[in-house]
Specification:
By secondary structure, the protein is mainly alpha-helical. It folds into two domains: 63 residues, Orthogonal Bundle (Arc Repressor Mutant, subunit A); 145 residues, Four Helix Bundle (Hemerythrin (Met), subunit A), CATH 1.20.120.530. It is built from eleven helices and three strands, in the order αβααββαααααααα. Strands 1-3-2 form a three-stranded antiparallel β-sheet. A hairpin with a 3-residue loop joins β2 and β3. The longest helix is centred in the middle third of the chain and has 25 residues. One of its GO terms (molecular function) is DNA binding.
């Protein structure tokens, strides 16, 4: 079931609708293969169709929906190849970031990372998958922020939407939060120690989890994945 989001005046309407629909698609509240109706979405958020249309375009650019002429807009099924490509690009960017963070992160940045880890543990204890995923993203964003390079995280965020769908599906069994928190802890400790090599190694192991998790998840949810 979709979360009852509220449109506010804090940012452009199309960006809010994009973010809300992205969250619903990533968490499979809107299933792969589902039809998205401009009319229904505009009614749901009580807005005109124009911002909805703009949000659909951005979702298509993120690889989450496909616009088929004369048929409509459909949520894309998950592409294993797109997941692999996104993970490869993400690893290349984040390895560079975490190495620099190990050499540059100041005490204030380290304190924020430590606090984030504490919040991750609380979310895991509550079995709150959505909150955990948001905190997971925030952990990685904070590392980029620690070297004053949030553009690096924005770049990653723009290409990882398909990865996020697999991440959500793996949380219950294949990659439970407790395991991911341990991996985050290793990354954090390497940054604290100023050990760039250890930070890189820990990050690579963390991101490579996706390689091992996608096969069992695709087998369990074959109807949601593109058939090769």
């Amino acid at each position: 079931m979709s979360i009852p989001y509220t449109i506010t005046a804090s940012e452009p309407v199309n960006q809010q609708i994009y973010r809300f629909l992205r969250q619903d698609i990533v968490t499979c509240a809107i299933h792969p293969g589902a039809l998205l109706s401009e009319k229904e979405v505009s009614t749901r958020f009580n807005v005109s169709r124009q911002p909805v249309r703009e949000a659909f375009i951005k979702l298509a650019e993120a690889g989450l929906v496909q616009v088929l002429p004369q048929r409509g807009t459909f949520v894309r099924k998950i592409s294993a190849q797109r997941v692999a490509d996104g993970r490869f690009i993400r690893e290349a960017v984040e390895v560079a970031v975490v190495r620099r963070a190990a050499l540059q992160a100041d005490p204030a940045a380290l304190a924020e990372l430590e606090h984030n880890l504490q919040l991750q543990r609380l979310a895991a204890q509550r079995h709150d998958s959505q909150a955990f995923l948001l905190l997971d993203d925030e952990f990685h964003r904070l590392i980029a922020q620690s070297i004053q390079c949030e553009l690096a995280w924005e770049t990653v965020e723009n290409i990882k939407a398909t990865m996020d769908r697999v991440r959500f599906l793996t949380l219950s069994e294949v990659s439970p939060p407790e395991s991911l928190i341990e991996q985050h802890q290793l990354i954090y400790q390497a940054i604290v120690d100023g050990d760039a090599d250890a930070a890189e190694s820990a990050l690579r192991r963390h991101l490579q989890e996706m390689i091992f998790s996608i096969t069992p998840i695709a087998e369990q949810n074959s109807e949601w994945f593109e058939q090769v």
